[in-house]
Structure formats: C-alpha cells, structure tokens
Amino acid sequence: MRSRKKPWAENEVATNEKVISEPEKLKGKWREYFGNENPIHMEIGSGKGRFIVETATRNRNINYISVERQKHVIVMGMRAARELDISLGFIIGDVEDLQDYFDEGEIKRIYINFCDPWQNRKKWHKRRLTHKNFLEMYKKLMNNHGEIFFKTDNTELFEFSLNQLSENGFRLSNITLDLHNSDYEGNVMTEYEEKFSKSGMPIYRCEAAYGNQKMTTVYENMNRYWEYVIKQDAKGLKESFTDDASIKWHDTNEKFTVDEFVRGNCEYPGKWHGEIESLEQYENRVITVVRVWADEMSFRVTSFFKMENGLIKELDEYWSEEGEAPEWRRSMNIGTQIKQTLATCQN
Ligand SMILES: C[S@@+](CC[C@H](N)C(=O)[O-])C[C@H]1O[C@@H](n2cnc3c(N)ncnc32)[C@H](O)[C@@H]1O
Asked: Does residue 118 sit in the same domain as residue 19?
C-alpha cells in the first residue's frame, strides 16, 4: 500500500497509548497487558486499520492486535482508535517477527485481509502471508488450536491460499466466491475491499480452523459436555472446565468452584435425561437451553458459557422447573400452548 509520508505520524506513534512500542517485552504476558482473560484476535497487514478498529468496536469482549509494517499507513487507524474505548493494540512490525512477540497459544484468531498477492514471479510466493511457512508459524502462535479468516479479491491468490491451508491441516469452511452477494452476515469492509468491490470485483472469503476437532467444534463440545452432566460423569465434567472456572446458579444465589460443581452435579440422586433444545454461539460465548428430567421432575436450564481454548471458563445458569401457567394467567384466557402436553392430547 503506497502512502504519502505524514509529518504528524511520528508524533502520533510516540503519543498514542494504543501503540505497543516493545512487543517483545510482552511475550507470554499479553493477558496482563490487556488486563483480562478474553481471547486475542490479530489482524496482520492491517493497512489503514479500518477493519480492525470497526471489528474491535463491535466486539468489546475480545482483545485485538493490529500488525502492520508501514507506520505511515496504520497511523490512520491508530488515530481513529485513539479516543475509542476498545481493546486494541497496534504493533508496527513485520509478520515475520511475530514469534518474538507471542508465546505459543497466545493468539486465537488471525485475520488476513487483502494481503499482497506477489503474483508476478513464482519465487515471490514465499512472501504471501498464506504461504505454508507463515501457516506453520501461525499454528505455533495459536498453539495448534485456532482459526484464520481470509479475504481477497485475487483469484490466483485465493486458489493458492485454499490449497496451502488444506495441505497444511486447516479445515476450510464458509468459503464464498462472492462475499457481498452471499448470506454471510456482519462483514466488516476493509479499505481495499471497498475499492475493489466498487470497481465490480467479487470478494473471496474463507475460514480455516486448525486443531483438535473436539476443542474447536462448539456443537460437539456442548453435546459432550451435556452428556457428562446427564450421565453424571465426574471426570468428563472436570475436564470440560479451566482449573479456575467459576460456575454461578443465579436462581439460588450460589457460586461454585469446578470441584464443588462436579460434586453437586454427580452426587445428585436419580437417573437423569436431557436434550439440547437450542444452542447459540458468538465468538467465545455459547448459550444453550437444555431440558433435563428425571422421574417426575423436569427442568429447563439456560446456560451462558464463556469459553477459553475450548474449555469452560465461566458458566452462568438459570434453572426453572417446568409446570403449568399459574391460575391468575389461566383465568385471563390468553395465549396458547407452545407444545401440546399429555393433558391436552388426552382432552
Ligand atoms: C494490500 S494492503 C491491504 C491492507 C488492508 N488489509 C486492507 O484490506 O485494506 C496489504 C498491507 O499489508 C502490509 N504487509 C504486507 N506484508 C507485511 C508483513 N510481512 N508484515 C506486516 N505488514 C505487511 C502492507 O504494508 C500493506 O499495508
């Protein structure tokens, strides 16, 4: 990306608190830098930074890092982010040096948007940010467990990247050859994306996940977790949580450690059954609604999970016993049943 030198850039970089001037000193300490346990997502080659600033603004429960080697380009994003209450830090540096800045597993997701295609000579392909040498490094940053979200306008680069990703063990999903006419929701445009799409070019996009399927597939994770709860499998349950996880049952004003929660769940008498009625996921948050029943008891439990590296870090639960509408509401003669109950079937 070409840009004119901006006389104010030096001052902006020197005084902007969101600029991380010595990232190597934060290696292994990024949670301390951000002051929370939220996952870290990183954009590499951010250009002017519109994407990362907007993405961080929309997702306050994620920590973001922008990596861009051209100070005079990213300075625009830094300036835009300066006054915003968002969790975003800027590294002015080269992607090649990321291993000096991050320990294994410190990064959860990497965005690569419209990276330089380096297409005129085959020997330049090594410089592409989706080349297998870079992918190997990203795997380490994500401790073999994370994802890459990739967008480009360049057909040849997209084909190359899909091949590199799948040949190097990434599972591809949500591939589109025309992002702006796809049903993908919540797209955040980059500066290049706007330029290319205005000139009529389709935008390609894909997601690539690396790592243990058990950890990354939230649906499988949740199914397994609920099986442990229902079957009162203490070992499986304990392994589903981070060691320091906290579990709250708000109806009864109780808070548990993992061991307490496992005991409470596994020592409860009776043979239990359960089914997941709905499951929603956004970033590291999962919500489930589960019907749990035994003999004559039946509950519906709404659970809000905060995940960290595939494990449950926080769980907020609301249990309610199933039953009929109270008399005062029945006497109003309003509403209809969502599902037919045995009683209404027999009438
Ligand atoms: C084509 S621009 C795209 C900018 C932005 N992502 C967008 O979509 O508008 C590519 C950007 O990646 C940066 N870049 C390329 N290789 C890089 C590397 N090895 N390390 C850091 N930044 C890099 C360039 O400086 C440039 O700003």
From this structure: yes
Q: Where is 210: in which H helix or E strand?
A: strand 204-210
For residue 182, report the distance from its CA to the centre of ligand 1, in Å.
25
86/105 same-domain check: yes
Q: Which of 97, 111, 116 to mutate to test the pocket of ligand 1 (most atoms within 8 A of CB)?
A: 116
> What CATH number is attached to the domain comprising 284?
3.10.450.50
Residue to mutate (ligand 1; options 51, 65, 68; most atoms within 8 A of CB): 68
Residues 105 and 200 in one domain: yes
Shared domain for 181 and 244, answered yes or no, is no
Q: Do the beta carbons of residue 257 and residue 246 sit within 8 Å?
A: yes
Question: Can you give the pTM of this predicted structure?
Answer: 0.67
Q: Is residue 335 one of the residues assigned to a domain? A: no
**Would residue 201 count as lying in a domain?**
yes
pLDDT per residue as tens, the chain (347 positions) = 555 677 788 899 999 999 999 999 999 999 999 998 888 999 999 999 999 999 999 998 899 999 999 999 999 999 999 999 999 999 999 999 999 999 999 999 999 999 999 998 888 999 999 999 999 999 999 987 789 999 999 999 999 999 999 999 998 988 999 999 998 989 999 999 999 999 999 999 999 988 754 434 677 788 889 999 999 999 999 999 988 999 999 999 999 999 999 999 999 888 899 988 888 887 778 999 999 998 888 999 999 999 877 789 999 999 999 888 999 999 999 998 887 654 544 44
Nearest to 241 by CA among 335, 305, 173, 326: 305
**Nearby residues of 205 by Cβ (< 8 Å), 6 or more positions away:** 149, 150, 151, 174, 175, 176, 179, 182, 184
Structure-token pair, residue 302: 């709404």
Owning domain of residue 252: 218-321
- 334 falls within a domain: no
